[in-house]
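Sequence and structure are kept together here, with a separate record for every protein. A complete record is shown below as an example:
=====
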Amino acid sequence: MNISKYTTRWILFFTVLLGAACDDFLTETDPSNFNTDNYFTQPAHAESIVNATYQSLYPMHERQAWLITELQTGSANSTFTANGGFPSFQLVRNLDMSSDHPSVENIWDSHYQGIGNANIAILRIPEISMDEAQKARLLGEVRFLRAYYYFNLVRIFGGVPLIRQPIDLGSPDLNPTQATVEEVYDLIVEDLMIAEAAGLPFNDASGRVTTGAVKSLLADIYLTMAGFPLQLGASYYELARDKAKEVIDSQEYTLFDSHDAFRRKANDNTGEYIFMVQFDELEQPSNALQFGLPPFKLGVSAYSSEQGFSYAQREFVESYESGDQRAEEGAFFFTKFTSESDRSDTVQFGNYYNFKFFDEAAHLSTAQSGLNWQVIRYADVLLDFAEATNELAGPTSETLEAVNQIRRRADIPELIGLDQAQFREAIWIERWHEQYFEGETWFDMVRTRKALDYVNGQFNDYVGHTFVDGATLEERHLLFPIPTPEIRNNLNLEQNLGY
C-alpha cells in the first residue's frame, strides 16, 4: 500500500469523524484537539470511531465497486459517446482494465480506510469505561464491517495485505506483504464469529449491523469458500446451509410482495432488506442512482448529471423467461420515460436502463435521492440456502420452495422435477436475473468459474467465455489489478496475473 497516503487519509478521516452511514446515529462531533492516544476516554468516543467505520460503505457502494463488477459480467454495458458516458467504464466492459484505472484505486483506498478505522476501534474501545453490553455491541458492529471490507478485497484482488493493527510511520506493517487468500478468509470468519456472539439484535430498522446481517454474510462467505479459489467443498456447503437456515428459521425477514417495493424509501431497513448503506436526501443523498439513467441529452430527469454509465445488455434482458415480471417495462428496466422539459412527451432510449431502484421523486423534481443501497437482501439468503443444500443433497422441498418464492413474485412457473445438475444451473440463472445491478453476479462467476451465455441459456467455463460483443474472458479477469500507486510505493506487493 501507499502507506503514507493511507495513514494520512485515515487520520484525517478519523479526526473529522465523517459518518452519515446511518441517518440518526452519526451526529456526534468533538470540537477539542485530540489524537488516538488521548481521545478514547468516553462512550461517545467509541460510538464516533465505529460510526466513522461505517462511512467507508459510501464510496464502495455508491460508485465504482458494484459498477465495475457489474460491467465485467457481460450483462451490463457502458457507452462513451458525445451523449454521455465515461471511457474508463467502457474499458471495464471491454475487459481492457489496467492497474491505472481510477476505480481500482478508489476501491482499494475506501476499503482500507474502513479497515483502518475498524482497527482503531478494536484496539481502543476495550480500554474505555462504559456499559459492557454497549461495548460488546459496538465491537460486534465493527468486526462485521472489517470482515465485509476484507471479503470484498479478497474477492476483487485476491491475496491482500492483512492489517490487524492501526498503522503509523513506525509500524512494522508500513510496507506489508500480501497474505494468502486463505489467511484473509480466516480473519473474516474470526471477525464474524465474534460479531455473532456480540449480543446484537437479530433485526433492527436503524440500519446498524444486526445478528441477521452477520449470519447472512457468513452464509455467503462459507458458500464462496466452498467454491473457487479455495474449493473447501462439502463441509463449507454445510456451514453455508446452516447459517442461511438460521436466518430463514428466524422468520425476521420476508420477500417484498412486489418489485415496486425496492423503489420506496419507507421500505428501507425493513422486510427483505437485511443490511443497507444508509442515505438521506438532505444530509447524505445517494448518487448511485444517476448511473442507471440514460445519457443527459435525452433529458428525462431533474438530475443535471445523467451520464449513461450503464445499461443492460439487450441479450441479457431477453434471457429472462417469457412472462417474467422482472423483465417487463418499469420493473428492473425501462426503455422510455417522460421528457424533463415536457412530461406529456415520451422519450425512447434505445437501450434498457436501470429502473430497479428508480427514485421517482428525485428524478422528477428534487435531484436528491434518499433511497438506501442494498448490501444483503433476504432473496440472497434464500438463494445461498438453496445452492448450498443442493450441493449436499440435491433438490429438496425446502430448497425448491426457497427459489420458488422468488419465482412466484416474478410470476413465472415454479421449479419441479429437477435433478441436482439441473437445479444447480436453475439457481445460478435465478441469481443472474434476481441480482442484476447489485454487483453480485461477477463474484458468483468467479467462485463457480462459470458464465451464462445469454443467447442459448447455457453455462460456459469462465475462462474462454465470450460476451455477445466478442470480448473474451481470460484467466487474468478472475481478479482485478492492484492499483499502480500501491505497487510503486510498496515493493513487497506483487501484481496480479496479466496486469
In short: The chain has a mean pLDDT of 90. The longest helix spans residues 132-157. The two ends are 17 Å apart (CA to CA).
